[in-house]
Specification:
The chain is globular and about 35 Å long. The chain is built from four helices and two strands; from the N terminus they run H-E-E-H-H-H. The protein is 41% helix and 9% strand. A hairpin with an 8-residue loop joins strand 1 and strand 2. By secondary structure, it is mainly alpha-helical.
């Protein structure tokens, strides 16, 4: 969710976030649509594709107990790597 004080998205940022949301979850591979989880607020090009459970789930989610993340032995950078690899594969096709 964007705060009312945040800058408007550029066309490139908007397109990137849409592409991220069109990917499966980078942690559990749940089918799209995904949430675009920002590693750092306002840095849109480091958004990670996450399903609702891996993003906001109280048990599995990043904003919860992170159980799925622990099982998969992943952190935000590992999930970003999966997201970027999938975007590159999609763009190469």
């Amino acid at each position: 969710m964007r705060s009312k004080n945040s800058k408007p998205l550029t066309a490139a940022e908007e397109a990137h976030l849409k592409a991220v949301k069109d990917l499966p979850c980078s942690v559990c591979d749940a089918p799209q649509p995904s949430d675009a989880h920002h590693i750092n607020q306002g840095q849109h090009f480091t958004a990670v594709a996450l399903c609702k459970d891996c993003h906001q789930g109280s048990f599995n989610g990043w904003h919860g107990q992170k159980r799925m993340w622990l099982i998969k032995k992943m952190d935000e950078l590992a999930a970003l790597n999966v997201t970027l690899r999938r975007l590159n594969q999609r763009n190469a096709a």
